[in-house]
Amino acid sequence: MKAERADSTEPAGPAESTGVAGSADPTADPACTRLPSAARGGPVSHAVSRIARLHRIAAGKLLKGLGLYPGQEFLMMCLWDTGAVRQSELIKAMDLDPSTVTKMLQRLEQTGHVRRCPDPDDRRAVLVEATDDSCALHSDVERAWTNLEEHTLAGLDAAERQELARLLAKVEENLSRETEDCPERR
Q1: Cα distance between residue 149 and residue 158, in whole Å
Q2: Is residue 20 exposed (0-12), middle (13-18) or buried (19+ Cβ within 10 Å)?
Q3: Cα–Cα distance between 137 and 143 in angstroms, integer?
Q4: How far apart are CA 146 and CA 72, in angstroms?
Q5: pLDDT, tens digit, for every residue of 86-143?
C-alpha cells in the first residue's frame, strides 16, 4: 500500500519524511523525495546521498560554463597547488580509478589545461602539470566554488556553517576508516 501513500493527502510520518525544508504538505513533493521504506534504518545516509547528488549537479552547472566536467576541477586544483607531479602520484592523490584519471587528463590536455611529458628522472613515468593557460581558469574555478558554497549554505549562519563542517569531517573520517581496505581506494 506504500504506492498509494504518495497520492495520499495524509501527512508523512517521521519515518517517511526527508525533513525537506518548506515541504509541510507531503503531496507537494514527488514520492521519490520521501524516505524510502528500505532506507528507514539510514535516514542520514539517504540524506547525504541525495545532497551529494544535488551538490554534484550544482557544481556541474557552474563548471559547465568554464568548459569543465565535475571532478576535473579537483584534478586542476591538485596540479595548481603541487606543480608538476607524476601521473601515478596524481592518481593516488585523486583516489580514483587510474582509467578515470587518464580520461580526465586526456580531456584536459585536449583543451590545453594540462600537459604530460616523460619524467626526466624516470622515462617510464609521466609528469603532469597545469599549463600557463590554465592559470586564468584557476580564478574562475575559485569563484565557482565560492558561489557553490554560498548557494549550498544559504540560510546558515557562521556558527552553523562551522558546526556543519566539523560534523562532516567526522563523517568523512568514519567513512575513510570503513573504506580503507576497499580495492577502489587503492
Answers
A1: 12
A2: middle
A3: 10
A4: 17
A5: 999 999 999 889 999 999 999 999 999 999 999 999 988 999 999 999 988 999 999 9
Residue-wise pLDDT tens digits, 34-55? 888 888 888 999 999 999 999 9
Sheet with 85-86, edge to edge strand ranges: 85-86, 122-130, 114-119
- What are the grid coordinates assigned to 125, written together? 613515468
Phi, psi of 93 (to 5 degrees): -65, -35
Q: Residue 123 to residues 42, 86, 87, 103, 118: CA-CA distances in angstroms?
A: 49, 11, 12, 21, 5
Q: State the distance between the two ends of the chain, measured CA to CA, in whole angstroms.
A: 44
Task: Write the DSSP assignment of the chain as a string of letters.
Answer: -HHHHTT--SPPPTTT----TT--SGGGS-GGGSPPGGGTT-HHHHHHHHHHHHHHHHHHHHHHTTT--TTHHHHHHHHHHH-SEEHHHHHHHHTS-HHHHHHHHHHHHHTTSEEEEEETTEEEEEEEEE-GGGHHHHHHHHHHHHHHHHHHTTT--HHHHHHHHHHHHHHHHHHHHHHTT-GGG-
